[in-house]
Design a protein that fits this description.
mainly beta, four-stranded antiparallel beta sheet, 3 helices, 16 strands, 45% strand, globular
Length: 293
């Protein structure tokens, strides 16, 4: 991920997700090319395979919704393929007036749905592809595993870690959260994040963000720095708790993550922590699924 090094965190970073899908919801085959003369991105959605059955008949009626994030208003859709788990779309979409530099900050979002005539269409799975990762001159073709939609889950938190051994500073940046669980009657939450620096089971230092009202997708953009000597970096952990603020009752936990060194709180060392240690002075960005406790 050389392109990530030494540059500010952007929309593109927020959609880089190298984790394995939590369950198998099929794959999608598509290709990309770029018409340099007409500054046009050409997307061909070819087929899907091994999609899950969403209908009582044991099949689905799949179609693909296409967006170039961050623009969510202009979306394109393939035709619906009836009663199949291995649809062949073979459809081509043209995004005109996109200089190559502009595409570098765009993320291709392919979202497969099951069409339902009488109720809301079911989400089957989705793929996010930052276009700065793609060499469009090669006319690449992809098979990508679909990621299942977030359901009955607490949501996800985008964080970055950076450690400077020279001055013993550990920096945690809380960038944003998505699809947080609603805790209030209005179907929203009032989220904020509480962070504890721990050594073993002992809590040393606490920090927290501001409260964001009535949202399930808050953008925090808040950084906290802690003084941790190099020889102690594997012994500490960060207990990161996303909370729902309540004016009257007790604040409720929405979900939490533990970012831990090998010996921190008896936890196994997280990959995010490993990457931070092996790449000192670099900002390592990663999405984390929140756990209920």
């Amino acid at each position: 991920m050389a392109f990530l090094q030494n540059r500010s965190i952007s929309l593109v970073d927020m959609y880089i997700d190298n984790s394995e899908p939590s369950e198998n919801v099929g794959q999608i085959h598509f290709s990309l090319e770029y018409d340099f003369q007409n500054t046009t991105l050409i997307l061909r959605i070819i087929q899907g395979k091994e999609l899950p059955a969403k209908d009582l008949s044991g099949t689905s009626d799949p179609y693909v919704r296409v967006t170039l994030l961050p623009d969510k208003k202009h979306r394109l859709e393939t035709k619906i393929k009836r009663r199949t788990l291995n649809p062949r779309w073979n459809e081509t979409f043209y995004f005109e007036g996109f200089p190559i530099q502009k595409l570098q900050s765009r993320v291709l979002h392919l979202h497969v749905f099951d069409y339902d005539r009488f109720s809301r269409d079911d989400s089957i799975g989705e793929v996010f592809l930052p276009l700065c990762q793609v060499d469009l001159s090669e006319k690449p073709s992809f098979w990508k595993a679909l990621k299942p939609p977030a359901k009955d889950k607490c949501g996800e938190l985008l964080t970055s870690l950076c450690y400077h051994p020279s001055n013993s500073v550990l920096t945690l940046t809380l960038l944003k959260a998505r699809n947080l669980k609603a805790k209030d009657i209005n179907g929203k939450s009032d989220p904020y994040v509480k962070v504890w620096l721990q050594f073993g089971d002992k809590r040393i230092e606490k920090r927290k963000t501001a409260v964001f009202k009535c949202t399930l997708n808050p953008v925090f953009n808040d950084s906290f720095s802690f003084n941790v000597p190099w020889e102690k970096i594997r012994e500490c952990s960060l207990d990161v708790q996303v909370m729902d603020f309540d004016n009257i009752g007790r604040n409720e936990l929405i979900g939490r993550i533990l970012l831990a060194g090998k010996n921190g709180s008896g936890a196994t060392e997280t990959k995010h922590w490993q990457d931070m240690i092996t790449k000192p002075r670099q900002t390592i960005v990663q999405w984390h699924r929140l756990k209920p406790e």
